[in-house]
Design brief:
mainly beta; five-stranded antiparallel β-sheet; two-stranded antiparallel sheet
């Protein structure tokens, strides 16, 4: 783009500007835990602190839930829903895994992921 300035006496000046489009960034969030693996005893509980962090001005409510739990293991989140915003991008939730008395639960692994 060229901008031209013209004075009443006929003198001119020009300015050449380049405009480039900034790449689009999709807001997202990450989920992680400080301890990647804990061992649960039958009849006991294991607790993880789950860290959620918004990236690139992510703003939304994230609902936590567990899938692929071993048989006899129950997961409870506190809180279950976490709201992230550009101003408050880092939150935590505690997940408590309850292990039934008659099973053994070892090696519950944490695999950090990004969504």
């Amino acid at each position: 783009m060229i901008i031209t300035a013209k004075a009443s006496n006929g003198k001119t000046g020009t300015l050449k500007l380049a405009l480039t489009e900034k790449p689009k960034v999709t807001p997202t969030f990450t989920v992680s835990s400080l301890k990647p693996e804990l061992t649960g005893n039958p009849g006991g509980t294991v607790s993880y602190l789950v860290k959620l962090e918004g990236k690139d001005k992510f703003a939304d409510t994230v609902t936590l839930f567990a899938t692929d739990l071993p048989k006899g293991v129950q997961a409870d989140f506190d809180p279950k829903e976490v709201t992230l915003s550009a101003e408050d991008a880092l939150k935590t939730s505690q997940v408590t895994l309850t292990v039934e008395k008659d099973i053994e639960c070892q090696g519950l692994r944490n695999n950090p992921s990004s969504h």
